[in-house]
C-alpha cells in the first residue's frame, strides 16, 4: 500500500486554455523522500499546491493512505508545507511562530510546549525561542519554518524550494540538515527544487518534469545512469 497515490492528475487554471499539469501519475511509499525537479514554469508548485489542497485538482485522483483527498479541506489533510519565503509572522517570537498552528487547534499548553521545545532541540533553535524573526539569520529563519511544520507532526511534508533564498554555503549545510531530519522523523516528503545537486543528494527517488509532463521517475543513480531522453540527461548532468 502506497502512502500517496496520484492518478491521472490534471490542472487547468481558470484563465488558461492549456493544461498546466497534463497527466501526473505517481505512487509514493511511506518514508520516501521524493524530489520533484524541472525548469521554472513546468508545474512543480502547482502540483504541490494541489496535494496540499491550495489549488483544486481539475481531473484525476489524489489518495492518501487509500482515502480520496480531492475534496478534503487543506486543514484536514494532515499535510505541512514549507515555502521558499518562510512566511514567518514578524511580530511573533520564534516560539510563538512555532506554536501558532497548535494554538489554533486548541492543543493544551503543556503539549504545545513539549512539541515546540523538542523541535527547537532537533533544529538547534533552543537559544533563539524568544527572538523575533528579524533578529535571525536566513538559515535560522528557514529552520523556524521547518520547525513550524514539524510540530504539527504531519503525515506528509511538502517543501517548495525551501533553500533557494539561502547562499550556497548555507544551502549545502541545510541540505544535510533536512536529510538528517528526514532520517530521524521518517515523514513522507515531497521536495521541489530546480537544483540538480539537491535532487541527486537528497532524493530516494527523483521525478523529472517538463511542461507539465513527467519525463522520468527513478533513483538518483537510475536517472543519472539511464536517462530516458536528452532533456533528462541535460537536466541531471549525465555524460552524453
Ligand atoms: P514551477 O513551480 O515549476 O515554476 P508553477 O506551477 O508555478 O511552475 O507554474 C506552472 C505554470 O502555471 C506557469 O506557466 C505559471 O505561469 C502558471 N500558473 C501558476 N499559477 C497560476 C495561476 N494561479 N493562474 C494561472 N496560471 C498559473
Ligand atoms: Mg515553483
Automatic annotation (TrEMBL):
Residues 4-236 form the ABC transporter domain. GO terms for molecular function: ABC-type transporter activity; ATP binding; ATP hydrolysis activity. GO terms for cellular component: ATP-binding cassette (ABC) transporter complex, substrate-binding subunit-containing. The keyword Transport applies. One of its GO terms (biological process) is carbohydrate transport. Transmembrane segments: none annotated. The keyword Nucleotide-binding applies. This is sn-glycerol-3-phosphate ABC transporter ATP-binding protein UgpC. The gene is ugpC. The chain holds residues 1 to 240 of 375 of the full protein.
Amino acid at each position: 500500500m502506497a502512502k500517496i497515490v496520484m492518478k491521472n492528475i490534471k490542472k487547468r487554471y481558470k484563465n488558461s486554455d492549456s493544461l498546466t499539469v497534463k497527466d501526473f501519475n505517481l505512487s509514493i511509499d511511506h518514508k520516501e523522500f521524493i524530489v520533484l525537479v524541472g525548469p521554472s514554469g513546468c508545474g512543480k508548485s502547482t502540483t504541490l499546491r494541489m496535494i496540499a489542497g491550495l489549488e483544486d485538482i481539475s481531473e484525476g485522483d489524489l489518495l492518501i493512505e487509500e482515502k480520496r483527498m480531492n475534496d478534503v479541506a487543506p486543514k484536514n489533510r494532515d499535510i505541512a508545507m514549507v515555502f521558499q519565503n518562510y512566511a514567518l509572522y514578524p511580530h511573533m517570537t520564534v516560539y510563538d511562530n512555532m506554536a501558532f498552528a497548535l494554538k489554533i487547534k486548541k492543543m493544551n499548553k503543556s503539549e504545545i510546549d513539549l512539541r515546540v521545545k523538542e523541535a527547537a532541540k532537533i533544529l538547534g533553535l533552543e537559544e533563539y525561542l524568544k527572538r523575533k524573526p528579524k533578529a535571525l539569520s536566513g538559515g535560522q529563519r528557514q529552520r523556524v519554518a521547518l520547525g513550524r511544520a514539524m510540530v504539527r507532526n504531519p503525515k506528509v511534508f511538502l517543501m517548495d524550494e525551501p533553500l533557494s533564498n539561502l547562499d550556497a554555503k548555507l544551502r549545502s549545510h541545510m541540505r544535510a540538515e533536512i536529510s538528517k531530519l528526514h532520517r530521524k522523523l521518517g515523514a513522507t516528503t515531497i521536495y521541489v527544487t530546480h537544483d540538480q545537486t539537491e535532487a541527486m543528494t537528497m532524493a530516494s527517488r527523483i521525478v523529472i518534469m517538463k511542461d507539465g509532463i513527467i519525463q522520468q521517475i527513478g533513483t538518483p543513480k537510475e536517472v543519472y545512469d539511464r536517462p530516458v531522453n536528452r532533456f533528462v540527461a541535460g537536466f541531471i548532468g549525465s555524460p552524453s
